[in-house]
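Long-time lurker. I teach an intro course on protein structure, and each term I like to show students one example going from raw sequence to a predicted 3D structure in token notation. This year I'd like something fresh instead of my usual example. Would anyone be willing to generate the tokens for the chain below so I can use it in lecture? Attribution to the forum is fine with me.
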Amino acid sequence: ERTVLATGAVVEQRWQPVGRVGLYVPGGKAVYPSSVVMNVVPAQVAGVRSIALASPAQAAHAGRIHPTIAGVAALLGIDEVYAMGGAGAIGAFAHGVPELGLEPVQRVTGPGNVFVAAAKRVVQGVTGIDAEAGPTDILVIADDAADADFVASDLVSQAEHDELAAAVLVTDSAEFAERVLERLVVRATETRHSERIRAALDGAQSAVVLVDDLEQAADFANAFGAEHLEIQVRDADAVLAGIENAGAIFIGPYSPVSLGDYAAGSNHVLPTGGQSRHAAGLSAATFLRPQQVVRYDEEALREVAPVIATLSEEEDLPAHGEAVTARFGERR
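-- Reply from a regular --
Happy to contribute to a lecture. Here you go:
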């Protein structure tokens, strides 16, 4: 991007990739080859030169990372891979581990549990992060035109991740809420990780919220700042127009969060815990920094010299102005 402010006065903005990143792929309660793809591909598209990846060591695989994770990393050309997990992995990326030949990184990305999210908060200032992607959450805005079983299955799908996962339904219909609760019991009971799911659904972080109307539902969603926001109502675009804060938004009955987790083409590394109020999901932009490049020639600088002198005097920083006037024959 190039802006010509006057003859001989040009400011350019270029996008420069960070040189080295550390990508975290969780592996405690599940195996996440999809998270390898979601982390690595945007970094490669951005042009990052050096990519390191970490995933927890697996007792079932002789202390190595899960072979599926290793295989996907190899397919993507990543050959710097560490069997380490949790908060320790984030700290290792930020500070480096000379004994392992692990050099510090400029940015750490990737989802994890509450300890990974907390560690990413701690290392900010030492290294950059994408967002605090901790225990997952889903918020579904639905009216009585939605399919209760679809909504229930989507809530269960995210509760499956972790006992601390948040599953929230926001609706303007008490009768519809009851139907969803009935289907939740069935869905949570019949699926494989039912104990974990029930713990998440019964936790204080999960809820059914009754509102007066869908405008109030949008207000609630904005205050909540969901990682995943589904809108399953008659007029989805009207509700979408009122949404400001969400990591990713899924519109209609055939756009479940699971689609975004695996195959939509969007990224599933998203801000959790209300972080979407000020943070965005992972993308190539996460690994890029805008840099402004200033090019003025002598006449262009001479033109703005009086402005600089006036402002520098007003701010009691005279050397700032003197750095300009020195170029035009004024010497002390």
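Some talking points for your students: The CA atoms of residues 247 and 326 lie 51 Å apart. The longest strand covers residues 9-17.
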